[in-house]
Amino acid sequence: FLSIGGLLWVGTTISAFTIPTIPSRPATTFTRLYDTPENFADVATTIADAAGALAGKTIVVKYGGNAMTSPELKAGFCQDVATLQKLGIRVVVVHGGGPQINSMLEKVGVESRFEGGMRVSSKEVVEVAEMVLCGSVNKEISSTICSAGGKAIGLSGRDDSLLQCVKKINKDGYDLGNVGEVEFVNTKLLNDLLDMGICPVVSPIGTGIGEEKDVAYNVNADVAAGRIAGELRAARALFLTDIAGVLDKEMKLMPNLSCDDIDSLIDDETITGGMIPKVSYATSAVKLGVGGAFITDGRVPHALLKEVLGGGASGTGSGG
Ligand code: X2W
Question: What's the ipTM?
Answer without folding.
Answer: 0.99
